[in-house]
């Protein structure tokens, strides 16, 4: 409680300093030299207007010996809510034990929900008057834990609570904008639900991205299987078509096609394994990579293939989990 109080004190004080300086037109780099003068000017200006002297309110403490902190209920609601918005869900629950009304504020819990689960079907519905974002957060957390144990049961839980609509596009958006789902369970789910996988692929925008970087982004959201098989082939095929659809100019200029991108993706994965594996002593050279790749994709220029090699050599594996 003491540590949280001290943290809230610092946040409130910094928030107020920033507000006062912005009102005086000072740039952040000037704050160090003008702190005292700015504070005095603002206090005098506000006292003249008969407003609340927030700076003095924050500065006031019972005594130097006491380690107390400002009561948020003494501040304007807007400032109190801003301070509490920096807390995570656990700390917000603790704060609600001290400031019951503030800690249960719907605006704060709406932010907690949407910062962790960016898309839910329920966000776009007309909500009943008794609706609670705090309760929704608990259900989203429960559903995510269920998903990480059994993905099918997790999605069914979300649907049973009215959080998700039973439609592949809605499920795909939920997965795309959520970062709390276990990637191994997600891989199992997408392998079984190819309709959701199709929608998930279309949510990626690879416009103006270099091919290896786009492939890394793809595999960060949709993790590659550990071994080559039908599922990996499906992923690369879907990626290849999506990459070409997002880059029509590149398709024209370089001569890329979904089939050519497919070949290049496998070349990049094999090169990644070769360069990163400690078991491979004789690493593939740039010349060897260009020669091997152009045998399978003859229309692709030698310079383009060379840039692919450089990217993997400098940045690393394209499909690490």
Describe this structure as you would to a colleague:
- This is FBX8 protein.
- It holds the Pfam family F-box-like.
- Residues 129-315 form the SEC7 domain.
- InterPro entries: F-box-like_dom_sf (IPR036047), F-box_dom (IPR001810), FBXO8_F-box (IPR048003), Sec7_C_sf (IPR023394), Sec7_dom (IPR000904), Sec7_dom_sf (IPR035999).
- This protein has 321 residues and is mainly α.
- The chain is 67% helix and 0% strand.
- It has 18 helices and no strands.
- The chain has helices at residues 2-24, 31-49, 54-59, 77-84, 89-98, 100-103, 106-116, 133-149, 151-160, 168-176, 183-192, 194-202, 211-221, 230-246, 248-254, 258-276, 286-296, 302-315.
- The chain is elongated, with a radius of gyration of 27 Å.
- The model is unreliable at 23-51 and 61-65 (pLDDT under 50).
Main sheet overview? none
The beta-strand count equals: 0
What is the number of helical segments per DSSP (H or I, 4+ residues)? 18
Task: Write down the secondary-structure element order.
Answer: HHHHHHHHHHHHHHHHHH
Mean of residue pLDDT values: 78
Q: Which descriptor suits the 3D outline?
A: elongated
Using only CA atoms, what is the Rg?
Answer: 27 Å
Structural class assignment: mainly alpha
Helix content: 55-70%
Poorly predicted ranges: 23-51, 61-65
């Amino acid at each position: 409680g003491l540590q949280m109080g001290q943290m809230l004190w610092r946040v409130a004080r910094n928030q107020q300093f920033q507000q006062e300086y912005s009102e005086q037109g000072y740039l952040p780099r000037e704050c160090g030299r003008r702190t005292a003068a700015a504070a005095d000017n603002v206090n005098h200006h506000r006292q003249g207007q008969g407003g609340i002297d927030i700076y003095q309110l924050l500065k006031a403490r019972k005594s130097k010996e006491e380690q107390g902190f400002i009561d948020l209920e003494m501040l304007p609601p807007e400032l109190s809510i801003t301070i509490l918005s920096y807390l995570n869900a656990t700390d917000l629950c603790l704060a609600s034990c001290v400031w019951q009304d503030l800690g249960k504020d719907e605006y704060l819990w709406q932010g907690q929900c949407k910062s962790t689960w960016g898309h839910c079907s329920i966000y776009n519905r007309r909500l009943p008057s008794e609706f609670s974002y705090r309760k929704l957060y608990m259900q989203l957390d429960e559903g995510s834990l269920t998903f990480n144990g059994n993905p099918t049961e997790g999605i069914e839980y979300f649907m049973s609570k009215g959080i998700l609509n039973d439609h592949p596009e809605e499920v795909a958006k939920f997965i795309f904008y959520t970062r709390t789902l276990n990637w191994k369970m997600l891989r199992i789910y997408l392998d079984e639900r190819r309709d959701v996988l199709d929608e998930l692929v279309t949510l990626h925008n690879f416009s103006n991205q270099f091919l290896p970087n786009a492939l890394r982004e793809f595999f960060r959201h949709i993790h590659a299987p550990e071994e080559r098989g039908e599922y990996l082939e499906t992923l690369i095929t879907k990626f290849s078509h999506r990459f070409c659809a997002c880059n029509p100019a590149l398709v024209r200029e370089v001569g890329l096609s979904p089939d050519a991108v497919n070949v290049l993706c496998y070349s990049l994965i094999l090169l990644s394994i070769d360069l990163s594996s400690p078991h491979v002593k004789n690493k593939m050279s740039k010349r060897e990579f260009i020669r091997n790749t152009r045998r399978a994709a003859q229309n692709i220029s030698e310079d383009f293939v060379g840039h692919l090699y450089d990217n993997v050599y400098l940045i690393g594996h394209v499909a690490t989990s």
